[in-house]
Amino acid sequence: MADKIFKHSQHPHSRIKPVPRAPGARGLRHGVSLLPSLFTIANLFCGWACVVHAMRGDLTTAAPFIGVAIVLDMLDGRIARMTGTTSEFGVQLDSLADLISFGMAPAILAFQWGLVPLGRLGWAVGFVFVTAAALRLARFNIQTPSDKRYFVGMPSPAAAAVPAATVFYFPQGMQTYQQALPALAVVLVPALLMVSTIRYRSFKTIDLGTKRSYRGLIVLAGVIAAVVSQPHEVLLAMAYVYLASAFVGMALQRFRGTKQPEPAPPAVSSTPAAAPEPPPGPPEL
Prior knowledge:
Number of helices: 9
Helix content: 55-70%
Strand content: under 5%
CATH class: Mainly Alpha
CATH topology: Four Helix Bundle (Hemerythrin (Met), subunit A)
Shape: globular
Number of domains: 1
CATH architecture: Up-down Bundle
Distance between the termini: 140 Å
Strand order of the largest sheet: 1-2
CATH superfamily: CDP-alcohol phosphotransferase transmembrane (TM) domain
Largest sheet: 2 strands, antiparallel
Number of strands: 2
């Protein structure tokens, strides 16, 4: 019986034939770009470290990991574009890492900091933040922006910076129900802004290769010095200034649109005016 099965498998018509690939289909690439993926994995690690320290109650150590993840998230995409190693795999990996670092991690951090006294309302608000981050990332992956200078909705790293900077500035946390009520705004406001259509300025279009004046370096050095000398206050101010920047831009745009233009003065001709023609005389008889 085994010999018959073996002979049947050796028959030319019984062999398994490979399915022909559809025209234009792309095969799986055996390998990934190592350098940008390392930054993405480091971003993912920071999100996981934030969760671990937050669950231990060490909020002072947990909050800065989100700030480090934001820096790594800014670098991985730029490095991939500079080295020409962008890929669909990198885009999907970056989105999954962002969901952990800028969705799950800040939600757990905020929950341990100020949402625990609210009971079920607290963990429900934390879940809203995670859902908003997931929707924001999914929308970003399928959208083709008409103006690359702006994001549609608050980007998830900036939204995660709001609770992270708040916890970093005030790590003592909320102990009572009344004290925990302001924590709802810290979590819900950036969550709603992530799924909104309000435009936020994007810094991806800044070309670091172009020559600029020395004033830019002085400003950058001043920002670094401020962060190093007063990290709690400066990072908190940066997070909330960016949150409010979209509303300031909308107000300025509306003010400029409603402002009536001043009427232009009448043009003065440089050529002398022609003398008026004399009135016609009496008709001849």
